[in-house]
Amino acid sequence: MFLPQEFIHRLEQGAFGRIVQVAAVALLIAAVAVTYDLRAFKNLSTAEGMDAAQLARNLAAGRGYTTYNISPLSIHLVKSKQAERIKEQESAKVAVAPQQLMDQAKLRNNHPDLANPPLYPYLLSLYLRAVNPDYTIGRNFERSGPDMVIAIFNQLLLGLAALLVFLLARKLFDPVVAWTAMLLFVASGLFWKISSSGQSTMLLLVIFLALLWTLAAFERGIQSGDWSNARQTLVAAAIGLLVGLGFLTRYAFGFVIIPVVVFLMLYSGTRRFATVLTTLIVFTIVITPWIQRNLRVSGEPFGTASYAVFESTDKFPADEIPRSLEVDTRSFVFQDYIRKFKNNLPDILQKELPTLGGTWMTAFFFVGLMVVFRSSTLNRFRGFLLMVLALFIVVQALGRTQLSEDSPVINTENLLVLLAPAVIIFGVSFFFTLLEQWNVPEFGFRVILTTMFGALISLPLIFMLLSRTYSVAYPPYFPPVIQITSGWLRENEQMMSDIPWAVAWYGDRQCVLWTRNPGDDFYQIYDYDKPINALYLSPKALDQHLLSQLLKGAGAAWGRPFLVDVIARQEIPKQFPLKYAPPRGFWPQNTEATYYDPSEEKPEQLFLTDRIRW
């Protein structure tokens, strides 16, 4: 007979109770997600997010691992590799078709992507294929439907990350710390912003949390002495697999194999060498096929990412390398690496590290370093986190590029944010340690203090949800203009722009990143690779300081005299092949084809094409 007391007991402590708790947390996350999407959602606003989105759409459409967001650097790498292959064939006296000898790197609509590791785009492509969103921008544009679809995908990953935070905290501490840490993770506004950015960070966070949980379980299993050799080998293989999957999500994450190997060497017991060897073998097996693909296509193991260490330096300032058709890094010496590290380190230590995770929970974590735990597992695990922290600081400082300047904190170069959940867990444990030392006798008062603590941590998200955010990320991205102007081009034509990732995503057209100058580099692509049918420049390029950027800075080659003549004098250089501009801003004369009032113009944008297309 089923008694009410038994039902209450199951509700509070049994398996049914755990189901109710999980369901309650899931509903909480769903409620925050819906509120965030309605009030604080912002369309994709980063180059990495739009780049991954357009790549995933190409995969979903059956176009293969090809990109519409093409950089001159990518063109250079593909052409150099193809020229090298032709020379090898000629030296081997292999017959090569004359057409193959000529224009080997023509920019067809199947230019291979060399910027993104494959895991996130492939998973996102499966999701887009299942959802099949409408990519047409409607008349009453405010929120981009596909952008929202991608945000929901990453919010699902955020929910999975929250579950892993709970499991990791429960593995290391008690249920109170686990529940509190998970709720504070969900209440962090930074992770909701990351989830709506379209970047691969949420997937990488899930992989990293799974790796941390596996390492914690491995250390405890070895310490207990209950694990068999087969089980130890299997978990070591899982560790190598997770690090490999992280590498296939973001190349810089591959460096985590270093502290992982150190951790396994120290705490694997008598079979440490077999354990480390198993992890390294599995890691190598996972990453090798993709590295071979990059070498086959571009000659670089990480594609264009191989040049990140040279970017944003004195010799290669701003985004000069991605916009270059020829790159010679032989003049880069060891002192240049040191100089870049020293230049970027202060910002990381002064701005990014203290606000890790978007809250001041970092203070609890670092103060808690002075606490020695009774559990050796906690001390060892915290030591591993400190090794990873030091590694991420070095890698992030050396790998910093213009992407970090364009979108501080929310960018794929931010590795420190991956440590935020672990920081929250140890910060919460230190808070409860202090609470115990205060000898607060009443249970209700302890709950009040804990609630106040959580509320303070959650204030950024609370204010974010209470305010109303304009979802269009303008400047510089205005999707209606991008889609209309891209629609004037045929599918096999291409554009050049300062925001090619946005043209590729919203316009679904092949677009080349604007070259370093409108002269030789521009004509090398126009004449020898594939004609450029249109030029679109957004406020990112036009809304700059006249003297320090357009006339003397990184944009000086275009700003002087090209943009000055076109914008100030309304004169297009005689030799420039793109001479036509829409007569009334960007809106066609036929009002039936517009989404907005045709009189509305965006004068801070520039569109030139080779013929009248509207």
Please render the helix and strand layout as text.
Elements (H helix, E strand, L loop, with lengths): L3 H9 L2 H25 L7 H14 L8 E2 L1 H20 L6 H4 L17 H13 L13 H28 L2 H12 L2 H7 L5 H24 L4 H19 L9 H11 L4 H27 L35 H19 L8 H7 L8 H23 L3 H5 L13 H18 L5 H24 L12 H9 L6 E4 L2 H8 L2 E4 L6 H9 L5 E4 L1 H4 L3 H6 L4 H13 L37 E4 L5
Helix pairs in contact: 1-2, 2-7, 3-6, 3-21, 7-8, 7-9, 7-10, 8-18, 10-11, 11-13, 12-13, 14-16, 15-18, 20-21
Quick structural gist:
This protein is mostly helical and 614 residues long. The protein contains 25 helices and five strands. It has helices spanning 4-12, 15-39, 47-60, 72-91, 98-101, 119-131, 145-172, 175-186, 189-195, 201-224, 229-247, 257-267, 272-298, 334-352, 361-367, 376-398, 402-406, 420-437, 443-466, 479-487, 500-507, 520-528, 539-542, 546-551, 556-568, and strands spanning 69-70, 494-497, 510-513, 534-537, 606-609.
Q: Keywords for this structure?
A:
single chain, 614 residues, mainly alpha, five-stranded mixed beta sheet, globular, disordered N terminus
